[in-house]
Amino acid sequence: MPGFLGNERLQFVLFGGKGGSGKTTSAAATALHLAQLKPERSILVVSTDPAHSLGDSFNCQIGNKITSISGVNNLWALEMNASALLEDFNRKHGSVIKKLADRGTYFDRQDIEDFFSLSLPGLDEVMAIIEVANILRSGQYNLIILDTAPTGHTIRLLALPAQMEKWIHVMDMMQDKHRYLFRHFTGKYVKDDCDKFLEMMVEDIGRVKSLLNNSQLTEFVPVTIPESLSIDETERLLLTLKEHKIPVRNIIVNRVAGGEECPFCLSRSRDQQKHVREIEEKFAAYNLIKMPLFPHEIRGIEALREFAEILLEKASYSHKPSFLEPPLEISSTPTAGMSDLLKKDLQFILFGGKGGVGKTSIAAATALRMARCNPDKKVLVFSTDPAHSLSDSFDCPIGDKITLIKDVNNLYGLEIDAGRLLEDLKKEYKADIEEVFDKFLGGGIDIKFDREVMTELISLSPPGLDEIMALKKIMEFVEDREFDFYILDLAATGHLLRFLELPGLVRDWLKTLFRLLLKYKGVVRLTSLAERMVDLSKSVREIQETLMDAKKSEFVIITIPEAMGLAEMERLQVALKELKISCHYVVINMVIPPSECSFCALKSREQQKYVQEASKKFSGYLINQVPLFPHEIKGLDDLTNLSEIMYGRATNQFA
Q1: Which residues lie across from 379 on neighbouring strands?
Q2: Which Gene3D superfamilies match (predicted)?
Q3: Is residue 563 within 8 Å of residue 613, measured between CB atoms?
């Protein structure tokens, strides 16, 4: 039995991995099993992924209030809503934060309120850490199970306690000025509500850090699938977990195909076997739990129970074709060719959707097609997803330098290291602040404290400023006319939505920071720093205008024919309308081709319900169905075949 299912001392179990690997299913099934096995224990399963699918897994409404799971008396679930948590946090602690800033700098209360509120919105991971700290402090639950966001954002989450300690440090520096002056004039210092707030924050974050590193009480369970992209992400995740001293003992290898009923199943199974062997070699130090590919969605209590039984190794799964029904008539929904998308005079084509739906493959195939159709134009395909997969798709190293794709003279790839770009900005900002304060003649305690606070303010930058830095880099290419077309492979839905909202948030943040800097205009010269901030603000405005210009940009939604995929697609559609980003195309990916095979027929029957549902709900969109390949899409030959299916009306050789 895996340790996370048998260790009664565990208080915290986290599931993470590539989008679409089955993290949520694994977390929900584990929570359900442990709740039923130990009725005396109170168990809470929490999703920190902004694109929640916990409710879909349990087949019930959950949302941002702790909700009891029907029929299981000791199991509760929560889908964290970062903005609601932020509102609550500001309501409880806003006055203390304002007081701290009022004491600590030249800024007035309004300035500080603006700055702190702007630095937090959308900070899903920060609010998740604070909420986990609150839940731990309450002592209401014996075990917390965390369903985390896709890999890149989970890596960011794990680094956050240290980042938040910096945030507390900035506020503590503000309070230090008050402590100094109080002692200076009264000879002693008495702690007040600001000190108590800071102590509580230090204690809370310390509690989370301590629990994350405690091998007796915590376990992280990576979930992977037998594909090279997922294996690579798992390697990156394991390195981060090791770096943060977070215990890992088990790895779930999900969606392992076993059927040999038809050539398609056999081909898929053979393709997976080499990856299963790679997993066994690379992750030999861990207990590997292999889970089968099911012909149906794991949704609802009964399906989760079945999943948990196999996870526990109490049962083995075999597909029984004895209950075959007549084949379902394949949807007559017309598959709209997408060739006209490439004929438009667009600068940017953006691909987004739920994790694991094939965004990277489709973005790469589109870029390849675009390059071949326009041999005299330069095409750049780039990834803003923190867990990059472009290198895997093209089967060649790309990284964070513009790389010419082998055998295609006008196609370039870039996996932007957004974190490095942000660190560069922070270093430049801090150097500028040091320089301008060094030039200030005179001094005194006020300037000493203000220098420290101003130097650290950049560490309170809004979430995703790193991603904005990535887009700023792209806008520089646009200004220099370096490329003619840009194809974007974006992060998974929840983080993508936050990313699309960011230009507005970051512009507000920069305006506020700029206004704060101007407070010092009469005291110190801020010319170069002010210019840098104005330049960044201008770039952000250009990004916003470009994304909202239907003549320049088009968004393509990628989904798969499953309930969770459709739910994500609807959320994304609503957000794109609100953000005024042009979107007329939907790709339903991984559609199982018609087959006599009982496994494929059963899965196809389930999929077609969702294809028909999507065509009704998205009647105004051009819907393009793309078949599931019996092997991983990797390298130029596979990408060429995929591009022909999407754009060239070519017959699919796997149909």
Answers
A1: 411, 485
A2: P-loop containing nucleotide triphosphate hydrolases
A3: no
Q: Is 59 helix (H, G, I), strand (E, B) or coil?
A: coil
| Residue % of the chain over a pLDDT of 70 | 75
Q: How far is CA 92 from the centre of its chain?
A: 28
> For residue 77, which of 24, 122, 2, 149 has the smallest C-alpha distance?
24
Contacts of 229 (CB under 8 A, 6+ apart): 18, 360, 389, 392, 393, 632
CB 168 within 8 A of CB 205: yes
Which pLDDT band, with edges at 50, 70 and 90, does 137 fall under? confident
Q: How would residue 337 be classed by pLDDT, with cut points 50, 70 and 90?
A: low
pTM of the model: 0.69
Task: Select from 3.30.310.50, 3.10.20.740, 3.40.50.300, 3.30.460.20 the CATH code of 3-85+126-184+192-314.
Answer: 3.40.50.300
**Distance in angstroms (rounded) separating the CA atoms of residues 107 and 93:** 18
The torsion region of residue 59 among left (phi > 0), alpha (psi -120 to 50) and beta comes to left
CA distances from 440 to 201, 451, 519, 522, 526 (A): 34, 11, 14, 11, 11
Contact yes or no for 468/436 (Cβ under 8 A): no
**What pLDDT does 370 receive?**
93
Q: Please say whether the beta carbons of 493 and 571 come within 8 A.
A: yes
Across the beta sheet with 67-68, the strand order is 67-68, 75-79, 43-47, 143-147, 12-17, 218-224, 250-256, 287-292
The identity of residue 204, as a single letter, is D
Instruction: Give CATH 3.40.50.300 domain extents, the chain.
Output: 3-85+126-184+192-314, 339-418+551-647
State the pLDDT at residue 275: 92
What is the pLDDT confidence band of residue 325, given thresholds at 50, 70 and 90? very low
Q: How confident is the model at residue 611 (pLDDT cuts 50, 70, 90)?
A: very high
- Residue 419 has which token pair? 């974190």
Q: Which pLDDT band, with edges at 50, 70 and 90, does 374 fall under?
A: very high
| Best CA proximity match to 460, nearest among 137, 168, 36 | 168
* CA dihedral sign, ordered 119, 123, 125, 127: positive
Architecture of domain 339-418+551-647: 3-Layer(aba) Sandwich (3.40)
Residue 98 makes CB contacts below 8 A (sequence gap 6+) with: 109, 112, 113, 116
Backbone angles phi, psi at 298, to 5 degrees: -90, 100
